[in-house]
Description:
The strands form 3 sheets. A 6-stranded antiparallel sheet has the order 1-2-3-4-6-5, with helices on one face. It has 2 domains: 6-95, 2-Layer Sandwich (Phosphorylase Kinase, domain 1); 99-274, Transferase(Phosphotransferase) domain 1 (Transferase(Phosphotransferase), domain 1), CATH 1.10.510. It is 30% helix and 17% strand. The mean pLDDT is 94. The chain has helices spanning 54-69, 102-105, 125-144, 197-201, 208-224, 237-240, 246-255, 266-274, and strands spanning 6-7, 10-18, 22-29, 35-41, 81-84, 90-95, 99-100, 147-148, 157-159, 167-169, 176-177.
Amino acid sequence: MEAGEHIGRYQIARHLIDTAFSRLYLCTDTQLGRPVVVKAFAMDAAKPEPPFSRAEWMRRFIVEGRIMAGLDHPHVLPVYETGRLGDGSPYMVLPFMRANLPRLIGFDVAEDGMAEDEKPQALDAGQARFILLQLLAALAYLHRRDIIHRDIKPSNLLLTARQGGVVRLCDFGFARVGKASDVPPHAWIGTLDYISPEQRAGAGAVGPAADIYSTGALAWRLLAGRLPGPEEGRPSLSDLAPHTPPAFVAWVERAMAADPGARPSAEESLRMLATGMTLGA
């Protein structure tokens, strides 16, 4: 679809990005005069992403909209509306957010020819804590409702502004509601650089601790300016980010424990990061 065309009452201003499952457009709501993002399901039927068929991914896209419609939290992205394109493909209408976390920290891996602001960057402990407290508040809310996100990573954290913006967790396409397994045995979903060992082994039955591991991996990325990599051979976070308070480092290490039972809950993590930590000490 091209600029100037309409999706319902939403006029396309420009194409934003394609993902493995969708195509996103910046649009204008012609009734309310505000910018929105229309996320339309788009997947090559001949090359569906494992472990599901295109039809199953489309069903999950529809479920994603319903999950988001049932949530009301300041750090979870809401959905305004859902609908169908002329070809039957579903879409959802979302708030327009000014940036996502990679706009603040760059991409995860440096490549030749990257602009300076695209290269991996670290945040100081205060900035990282500000972001993580908002994310953990969203996760505590979700986990109380038996929702596991399963895809915590920088690009799924949207910001109302590049500096000091409010964080909103988005993209519930991999989310699971309830405790029943929803993925074939031994199949994984998520983003490999951030998912827990148990999610790699089989995503269907993971619990809230999987989201905590991913949040710990995100914290490592924010503080060190690089991905943590495999546990074996992983350098000390204290060496990579020497000005990070020891209590902060201790929380990251607990969050990334190999044993899910050793990780703190989202509620406990909130308490650990909100109290008893003198940032900059």
